[in-house]
Amino acid sequence: MPTIHLSIPDTLYEKLRQKSDEMGIQITDLVKLYINNGLKEDSIKGNNREADEILLYIEAKLSKLDAVVLDLTRRVRQLEEEELKDVETEIIKND
Asked: What is the C-alpha radius of gyration for the chain, rounded to an integer number of angstroms?
């Protein structure tokens, strides 16, 4: 198994010692636990960043679609009004 040697301040070592004593484990196991938790958290943050990017992309697409729908709705109303005017004009001519 690979080995890592760390130089840490005495105050940090004391905090690690106290925490390991509280948990009933060795300092090296506590350090491994902290490293694993940090790596998992980074992985989760990485996934969150990816999810945020996907969400931004979807929001941008939704905004574009919303603009298209509004434009199409406006055009349909405009066509309906023109058609209504044509029908009214035709009815007036026939009377």
From this structure: 34
Of the chain, the end-to-end C-alpha distance in Å amounts to 99
Helix (H), strand (E) at residue 22: helix 10-23
Q: Which amino acid would we find at residue 15? A: K
Please name which of 27, 4, 29, 3 lies closest in space to residue 15, comparing C-alpha atoms.
27
Q: Model-level pTM?
A: 0.48
Q: Are 47 and 41 in contact (CB under 8 A)?
A: no
Question: What tokens were used for 49?
Answer: 């960043």
Helix (H) or strand (E) holding 68: helix 27-94
CA distance 72 to 78: 10
What is the predicted pLDDT for the residue at 85?
85
